[in-house]
Amino acid sequence: MSFDRCSHPLTRRFALAFGAALLLTSVAHAAQTTQANEPADVCPALTHIVDARDFRQLPPQTAAQLPGLANADDCRANKNAYDCHWRAHWQADGVVSDPLEEFGADIAACFPNVVHDINTPTRQHFIVTTAERRVNVTASVQGQNELRLRITR
Description:
This protein is an alpha+beta fold.
């Protein structure tokens, strides 16, 4: 006699309900784990910084704050240069194992008109061309998991 014939209908319903609940719990947990390990999106802040006419206005603006920056004191600005230092707090995403490489990939993905002309283990340089200007974006390593972003025009 098979299990279906000898088991009680309530037992089968309970088993199905328990299995469905377990599956939903696993999916929810996987979604939370994936979101927690993903680095924050830097494109809105980078775009805001590159588009700025005068970098001196950027430090107090929340739209210009890069993910991971403790506060505006981590950035210096003058009319034509914006320079920030911070610790990379995100983990590798399974594709890129280095915060500088991860950040460089983000920079390259953020802008439609970008040239990536220097790519070393400690420095990445990009030229972003907008309708109004040409902007240099340099990401570099300052220490263990400490990054520097310098944007000039």
